[in-house]
């Protein structure tokens, strides 16, 4: 038992500083965002200061700039048409897409230099046009320059419009860890243009649908039923079905972030990361040859089968989930699931340890107790995970006849 030193000062005084900051930002869905007759961008910039000419810098996915004919010109023409309110201080700055942008820190410095050279201040705007990786990186640049510059996201992929674009996280990778460097900083606005979706390659359109299945599985049985009912329409990328899927998925993510009680993830529960402990590891094991959504689809199938093996979910539900994912176009097997290290352990299991560390030492994993209702657990049995992996492998056509 420690002894109190009589010479120590014991008259400590503590004053508590308390304040709260409300957060709100619009998430808009439109088409033809850069058509001069569409006032959305202009009105968004003028929301707080309607009579000011607003200085903006735009960082855009270089592939998107090449894929959509005349996009640079459309952006410039829009700003000229609304020159009374918009000052585009430089041509849209092209940036690489995907994990390359998040994994090489010199791109962050390059973007910060652009803001510095053009004297972009806290009343200016940084706009990111691209997928989730670009929005993550641009958001980090905006949040850390001048301690925070207004940031407008313009998601250009299914995955970023229905999931990552509406969140409050920004980040880049370091030391082989996804999003090791990052911030919680809500955007000023999120402007979704469906025309970006129509320009995507088939693989990218499919990839983003995994997050819709995920959020339906943990939060909305009715939406899950809708996904099954409209799976063929979604597989054909029919506009009406795709638009509803994107918007409903975004709404469910927004509700969880805004009403779930932990928008800045101070606790250990991560319901929106259902299926992600394995997905994140599969991405790194494949050096990102697996798209995020493709890895998530595999992770969903794995954790759904694990839920059945654990007695939480009724037998047969995993077949229903896998059938939906496959109808949407996902391949639910990858050889990296079986990769082993020198000690003979499954590499994918490191994903659980990474998850535990990310959560501060206490593992919290979302599983399913029904299709539409998630359940938090605090341990995963490795033997049961391997059993689920074996089940997934045996579903492959090449194994069914054996």
What does this structure look like?
Strands 1, 2, 3, 4, 5, 6 and 9 form a seven-stranded parallel β-sheet that branches. This protein has a two-stranded antiparallel sheet with strand order 7-8. The protein has two domains: 172 residues, Rossmann fold; 184 residues, Dehydroquinate synthase-like, alpha domain, CATH 1.20.1090. Strand 7 and strand 8 form a beta hairpin. Helix 5 crosses helix 6 and helix 14 packs across helix 17. The protein has 402 residues and is α/β, with parallel strands linked by helices. Helices cover 45% and strands 15% of the residues. It has 18 helices and eleven strands.
Concise structural overview:
The chain has 402 residues and is α/β, with parallel strands linked by helices. 45% of the residues lie in helices and 15% in strands.
| pLDDT averaged over residues | 92
Helicity range of the residues? Answer: 40-55%
Instruction: Encode the helix/strand succession as letters.
Output: EHEHHEEHHEHEHEEEHHHHHHHHHEEHH
Derived from helix and strand composition plus strand pairing, the structural class reads alpha/beta
Q: How is this fold's topology laid out?
A:
Elements: E1 27-30, H1 40-45, E2 54-61, H2 62-67, H3 71-81, E3 86-88, E4 93-95, H4 99-103, H5 106-117, E5 125-130, H6 132-144, E6 150-155, H7 158-162, E7 169-174, E8 177-184, E9 189-193, H8 194-198, H9 202-219, H10 221-229, H11 231-235, H12 239-259, H13 276-285, H14 292-309, H15 317-328, H16 350-358, E10 365-370, E11 373-377, H17 382-394, H18 397-400
Helix pairs in contact: 5-6, 9-10, 9-12, 9-14, 13-14, 13-16, 14-15, 14-17
């Amino acid at each position: 038992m420690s002894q109190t030193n009589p010479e120590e000062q014991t008259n400590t005084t503590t004053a508590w500083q308390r304040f709260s900051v409300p957060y709100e930002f619009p998430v808009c869905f439109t088409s033809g965002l850069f058509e001069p007759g569409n006032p959305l961008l202009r009105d968004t910039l003028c929301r707080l200061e309607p009579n000011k000419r607003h200085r903006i810098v735009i960082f855009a996915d270089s592939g998107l700039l090449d894929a959509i004919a005349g996009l640079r010109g459309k952006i410039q023409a829009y700003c000229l048409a609304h020159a009374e309110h918009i000052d585009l201080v430089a041509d849209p700055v092209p940036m690489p897409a995907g994990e390359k942008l998040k994994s090489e820190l010199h791109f962050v410095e390059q973007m910060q230099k652009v803001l510095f050279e053009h004297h972009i201040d806290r009343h200016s705007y940084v706009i990111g046009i691209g997928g989730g990786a670009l929005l993550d990186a641009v958001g980090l640049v905006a949040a850390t320059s001048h301690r925070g510059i207004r940031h407008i996201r313009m998601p250009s992929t299914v995955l970023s419009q229905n999931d990552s674009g509406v969140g409050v996280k920004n980040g880049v990778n370091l030391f082989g860890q996804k999003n090791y460097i990052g911030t919680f900083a809500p955007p000023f606005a999120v402007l979704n243009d469906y025309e970006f979706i129509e320009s995507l390659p088939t693989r990218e359109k499919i990839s983003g649908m995994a997050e819709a299945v995920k959020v339906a599985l943990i939060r909305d049985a009715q939406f899950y039923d809708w996904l099954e009912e409209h799976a063929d329409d979604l597989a054909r990328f029919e506009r009406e079905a795709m638009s509803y899927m994107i918007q409903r998925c975004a709404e469910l993510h927004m509700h969880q972030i805004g009403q779930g009680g932990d928008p800045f993830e101070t606790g250990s529960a991560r319901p929106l990361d259902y299926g992600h402990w394995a997905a994140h590891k599969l991405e790194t094991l494949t050096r990102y040859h697996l798209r995020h959504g493709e890895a998530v689809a595999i992770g969903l199938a794995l954790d759904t089968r694990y839920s059945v093996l654990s007695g939480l979910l009724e037998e047969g539900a995993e077949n229903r989930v896998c059938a939906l994912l496959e109808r949407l176009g996902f391949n639910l097997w990858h050889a990296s699931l079986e990769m082993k290290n020198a000690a003979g352990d499954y590499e994918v299991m490191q994903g659980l340890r990474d998850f535990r560390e990310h959560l501060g030492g206490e593992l919290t994993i979302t599983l399913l107790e029904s299709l539409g209702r998630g359940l938090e657990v605090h341990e995963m049995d490795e033997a049961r995970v391997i059993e689920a992996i074996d089940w997934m492998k045996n579903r492959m056509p090449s194994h069914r006849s054996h």
